[in-house]
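Extended Data, record Deoxyribodipyrimidine photo-lyase
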Amino acid sequence: APVLIFILGDQLSPGIASLRDLSPADAVVLMAEVSEETVYVRHHPKKIALILSAMRHFAADLREQGWRVDYIELEDPANSGSFTGALAAAVERHRPSEIRIVQPGEWRVQQMIDGWEARFGLPVRILRDDRFLCSIPAFRRWASRRQALTMEYFYRDMRRQTGLLMDDGQPAGGRWNYDAENRKTPPRGLNYPAPARFPPDAITRAVLDLVARRFGDHFGALEPFALPVTRAQALAALDQFIAAALPDFGDYQDAMVEGQDQLYHSMLSPALNCGLLVAREVAEAAERAWREGRVPLNAAEGFIRQIIGWREYVRGVYWMHMPDYAEANALGADRPLPEFYWTGETDMRCLAAAVDVTRREGWSHHIQRLMVLGNFAMLAGVDPKAISDWFLVVYADAYEWVELPNVVGMSQYADGGLLGSKPYAAGGAYINRMSDHCGRCRFDVKAKTGPDACPFNALYWDFLARHEARFRDNPRMRTMYATWHRMKPAQQDAYRASAAAFLAGVKPAADGWARAPL
Ligand code: FAD
Ligand code: DLZ
């Protein structure tokens, strides 16, 4: 009897552990497009199209290599609609000796898999996902030795463990982190590289028609669709990023420029997270470019830190703290999500621009996510579950293992500081420094209060005032509280009143945008 290898839609890597140590003669590969995965939240149509097209291309590649692939399309009449149902039918068809699967990315799916052995009366071999450089037990060991889970120390250990950017056991160039040289304000007239774009082939075209028909009412534009959907395309996108954008990646990492979506970011997260690329090869490509003198060290280091530092770290935090992490709400935030997160209809230009790129691309860069979309939600006191649902819906790279820690932890401080030692809160001055939005905004970033002042200003002070008991003794926030207390009571009241007046005019989103009504 064959081994039945179940490959999920974010496991599309030729080197995936479940295909190893078996030959095509001994196994059947199962892949299933299932409605449960397409609608557990109402994903951006580009994300659904990416995964279904990448799955179909991956299955075709496997067949070409001689594997027997049992592939269930979404509209197959016999499609049961769930991973467990697809597996049940495949077990009937193939009578396997064993089921093999790589551990899933998400807690939700792990819960399903945990029930399979009892349900099918077959051994279910769950393999470590070694596309991640740090295993879940290794992260737990690292975390158990520490009081605070400081990413920087985790990252240094990952550098030592992988040997990336290391020379004779020491960090290349003598320093672990070159952030001090990063995050400049971009001067006018910089040349921005064009993002890699891949026109749909016949497989993708068929998927686009399906997605338009079935999920056309989800938030976001399906077309134009130009994401990499094959490994060859993803490798081409990686090459193009390294050649054209990585040299300036570090310098302008926090910038926001109107009319420029990508700036010097890689836009590789959708391909990385569904497996078309793996972390090690991406980090190695950046290191190689530095060693060959094609990119400066601050750029290579900054980029590699995102991949082997942040990406691995948030996954470790997720698996250490689920399922409680999804319920975290340390700041007691309970405001419904504003409707403009879905419609983009707000006069705040930075927010409208961030929603707009998100709608068009199913992607936005980190500072838009953290310092605009996330920052606003935290300052306004939006329920972490509502904003987390939004982030899970709108990005083509969104999977709970990476979305949840970034939203609940990094951007909302809802985990009470597990992931960051202070909230990422900022007023209009920060956005003005890092972007060219404010000059064209209807609100005045220099004005502090009143109906024409940038709402971020009053929201910022109102947030600090609301949470003073929690944050006042935080050494990294003392200066801000000192400033707050130097203000006259009338000024403080004006901030509070401005924040309240602005929030009173923000329309809450109706139910049903993120999750279909039951
Ligand atoms: P680049 O700027 O080119 O960075 C390179 C790579 O580093 C990314 O592709 C990504 O794989 C990795 N990376 C960078 N920062 C992070 C991070 N904080 N956590 C994990 N990986 C990181 N990333 C996702 O992949 N999926 C998400 O659902 C997601 N949700 C986010 C929500 C919020 C509120 C915030 C603040 C960040 C979120 N991120 C998420 C992290 C980050 O914003 C995206 O990975 C990044 O914007 C993707 O664009 P890029 O590929 O051009 O990244
Ligand atoms: C996100 C997604 C979607 C939209 N559709 C499918 C699908 O039809 N079949 C599949 O195998 N995977 C899909 N995925 C990705 C899964 O949700 C992902 O593999 C799990 O969440 C585990 O991380």
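Summary. DSSP finds 22 helices and seven strands in the chain.
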